[in-house]
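WARN no homologs supplied; continuing
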Amino acid sequence: MNYSKMWTNRCFALILEVLITITTFLVVKHLGIDHFKHKFRINCMEKTLHKIGENERVIVINNMMRADDKQNKEDISLLVQGDISKLHYVPQLAQLWEGPIEAVFYHTNYADLDRVVSAIIQLRYCFSHIRKHVTWHFVSPSQNDEVCKEEVNIAPHLSFCDDGDSACENHESSCEFFFAKLRNNLTDPGLDVNYWFPVNVLRNVARNNTKTDWHLTLDIDLVVSESMRERFLNFAKRNGVFNSLSKPIYILPGFEFTSDSDDLPRTMEELFYHYYITMGLRVFHEWCKTCYHHTNYELWLKSCQNQQLKGKTDIIVSHYVQWKSSFEPYIIAPNTIPMFPEQFQGYGYNKISQSYETALAGYKFAVLANAFVVHHGWKSPTEGIKKLQLKHNSIIWEKLKRKLHKQYSNRLI
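OK structure emitted
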């Protein structure tokens, strides 16, 4: 018997086992998971917000799961928010943006955080762009003096797979199976049509956590045009945007696509095709003439078409616009612009209020050519509970306008 060879093999096996254990420990430590107890450790803070005259506490979990890549200050962060039923939009956004993303999600049932964390961990497992670029934050109402938990239980890896599912036998098929289930099954029953969603709280959580000097704030169900971040950074370097003292902010024209599929227009060629030929694309909030039409879409389309005829696809400034009543464009902006007023909840004035104060503060609105955002599906006119929310928020809006006029020395725009 060759004892030397046997001991060599045994030592090799022990070394391999130790290396696997160390590697596993480092991986789960990086994810914040206690591998043996299936615990996920989090940091919490509580804040107060106001809703229809009564105080409501929310639990805010900052940096619940961090992106792997480090962030550069001279960059743009994409700030997105939504409820957990829209988690399935994140992979496409992460792939298109290819840079830092602060994602804030809301769930009415804090006790269900375990399942949300499990879903996010599996998204990180399945999509490398999410692992690299997306930092996750969580907001939930605090009910019955519920204390923010320092750790939560999570389901074992690939918990969306049932025992015996052949689709879960390998990485690719298991991720496809998980994503299909995520899209259809992860919902928040507490978020019915009557819910007053604290959208500006979520937007500010994302903004407060960004590490870059510039940002773009979007709802999670919008997508950006192809390579937008990279092309804007090139534009910024060519024009000294990051060192500018002229207070510019940059408008991205918004559109709506008739389908809620992932096959949205991403290039100018695709935008022209669906806008002029299939008629499946229309201006964002077509029925609200004051919300986005001040962008001057006709001039923008002509500018983009002229660039296409010249064979140029670089992002440039198409034209400048003045802020007008109810204007709420999607903007790439420095972190020096005003925050979102958190007294607005539900539908109406939540974005207009911030846009208005930004204009009062002296920022100039430049519309970018060869860049745009698209919403999944066509928006519907205000109806039902939205009318009540709009009426309520209009009262808050009038009070805020008077306050802002005094704050900015009665400046009018």
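The first helix runs from residue 3 to 31.
OK
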